[in-house]
Every structure is written in structure tokens, then in C-alpha cells.
Amino acid sequence: MPVVAVSAWRTYQAEKQREKSSEDEAAAVQESIAGMVVAQYLSLLRSKATEQAVQSRIDLAAVLLRLANDQLKQGTGTSTDALRANVELLVEKENLVRAQAQTKAYSHGLAQLLGLQESQHVVSTESLTAADKQVPEEQQLLTEAFNTRPDLASINALSQAAQFDRKAAASQRLPELHFDGYWAQTGRNPAGALPAYTYEGQIKLPLFTGCRITAEAQRARLAADRAQETVAEPRDLITQEVRDALSSLDAARQELQAGSRQALLPPENATGNFVKVVQRIPVKIRVHQNPYDREVLRPGMNVEVKIRTSSWIF
Description:
This protein is mostly helical and 314 residues long. It has one domain: Outer membrane efflux proteins (OEP) (Up-down Bundle). Helix content is 62%, strand content 9%. It has six helices and five strands. A three-stranded antiparallel beta sheet has the order 1-2-3, with no helix packed on it. The protein has a two-stranded antiparallel sheet with strand order 4-5. α1 packs antiparallel against α4 (150-170), α1 runs parallel beside α5 and α3 packs across α5 (212-262).
């Protein structure tokens, strides 16, 4: 058995890192499955929130249509306003149908990920709210991801294993101390057998290996460099995933807040599509019997009427 063998110790360390890499890879697969389920569930909740927002807009459009019809009956509105309100109501109903179809699609996808039977369905009892929560810091999330992501830990373990392989290949030039021993019985018959002990100590020092150690060291060094380069790509991918997730989270939060305030905002009229309502008041004008008035007033003429009531002039 080797007593002092640096190369064997480095090989043992490399195998331990490969074992750790396998465990981290299994954890990464589990986390990937959990991430898919969570993402599908959050998409379901967001689709339900969109459905509720569309339903609120339908209720608002129905109220505006009823108001436009009432104004049309009273003579203060036009048929164009009523038609526009009706079209807006129909458009929102179409949006509701699409939102409901999207919610069912996310529900079926979540049931498939959970492995449910065809007769079982997923019913969400939660709902997203427009709570004003701060978005987490990007640097904090990146640090946590780099320290806890099992896929990155698996790649780091493989990189360390490659480094140990390189050290093991280079350590083959060092002398090794081996100690061996065995025990046996010798004799002509079992009754007269005597125990025999054999002990042996060796020091192995490679003198000429035909460049085998050099070739193995070079191959191990190239494998370590290649493993080190593979670590940078997952880190860039994780950085991009974290930034995309933060952007989506902030956009969803702002969308929910805007949807919750939409019903409280007055309708905008930035395009100038208003209708001017003209009120007609019957006025009687008495003309005194004066020859001059008869010559001045002619049919079809426009006049500016002033009504004096006490001290107010209109």
C-alpha cells in the first residue's frame, strides 16, 4: 500500500470533486423542474390578473355605453358616441375571451408539469396584487445566484477536478514510498503449520518514462484550461437570466398598479373627439311700431341679443 504518494492523493481529490459535481447536477435538474412549475404557476396568476383587468374594462365600457344611449335619448348626445361606446365594449369582450383562453392554456400546462390525470384540473385560489413592493437589488441577486445555483456549482466542481488531475499528473515525478506486507502459514500439514510474515518497503522514483508524464501533464493542463473557460459562459447566462427576471418583475408590478388605477382615472380626450351640444332657448323680440325699425330689420339678418336682468348683462 502506498504510504506517501502525492499523485494518488491528487487523484482521490479529483474523484471527490467529480462526485460533488454529480450531486450538484442532480440538484440542478430538480431546481430546473421546480423553476418550470413556479414559472407556469406565476404565468397562470398573471393571466388571471389580466382577465380581471379586462373584466373591469368591460364593466366600464358597459357603463359608458348606457350613458351614451341615455344622452342620445335625451337629445344631448349623438349616435356616433353610442356607436363608439358599443365598439369599445365589443373589443373588450374579445380581449376577455382571449384572456380566458390564455388562462386555460396555462392551467393545462401546469397540470401537465405536475403529472395530473386528464380528469384533474388545476384551480388557482391565489391572485396577484398591485402591492407596492420594492424590486430586489440586482447585485444582491447575482451574488446569491453565483453562490447557490447548483448548475454553476457542478461546473465549478468539474473545473476543480480538472485542476487536481493536472496536479496529479505533475506529481508523478515525485518519489513515492510504498509499504507492503502479508501473512501466511507454511508447513507439511495443517497441524504443524507455522505462521510466516513478510514485510516490504519500497521507494519508487521515476527516472525515464519516455515523456509519458510530460504528455499526461500537458493533456491535464489543457483539460483544466478548457474547464476554466466553461465556467465563464454559465455566469454570463445567469447574469442575463437575473436581469431579465428583474425586468419582467418590474414590468408586471407596474402593469398591475396601472390596471388597479385605471378604473379611477377619468377618460382621456386627447384627440379632441368631443361633441359640442348646442342648447336652443326660444326668445321673443318685440319691435315697436317705428318706421325706422321697419326699414332696418330685414328677414334672414343676424342679431346679437343682450338680456338685461337687474344689474347682470349676458
